[in-house]
Amino acid sequence: MRDRILLGFYLLGLVIILSSHSFYLLSFFAIALLCLARSSWLKILKKALKSIFFFNIAISIGYIAIAVLQERVWLEYILLFNLRVFVLTLTTLLFSHYVNIALALSFSKTLSFLLSISLSQIYSYQKSYENFMLALKSRLIKKMNERAKKEFITSVFGYFFTKALYDSEEKSLALKARGFFDQN
Question: Is 32's pLDDT higher than 80?
């Protein structure tokens, strides 16, 4: 029951964060979330910053470039966007840190099934990535040169892309078999 209540607070928090256009409210949320994290606040803060850094940099640079070309004001929007993404990420990390998602979604068989499919896919990809890294380490005698690194990354990316296409077809068929899509 505790996990379901926290799921409700999480969803309510997402709605408030997404609908807020106030720096003060979003800053208050960020500070409150870090206080709720108690002893692991620094760990969650670092994880949130790491996970959004490259995404926010890319989006911000693109938006600033377009705004400068169109001679629009961009600073306030960029600050609000980055703060909102940070608070959303912090909320999600805190939620996943303290809540058992399987228990929170146990009220619905459909959501539990979708969670199981998602987790099996995540673990499958994680295991494949670990196997690739172990295979690479076992075959290396000396440090890889840049060309070999690019070839390795390209082949791994190709594998995951092909696997994603195949898995999506398989998951789609499994969901259709269980009545998730309209049969018309």
Answer: yes
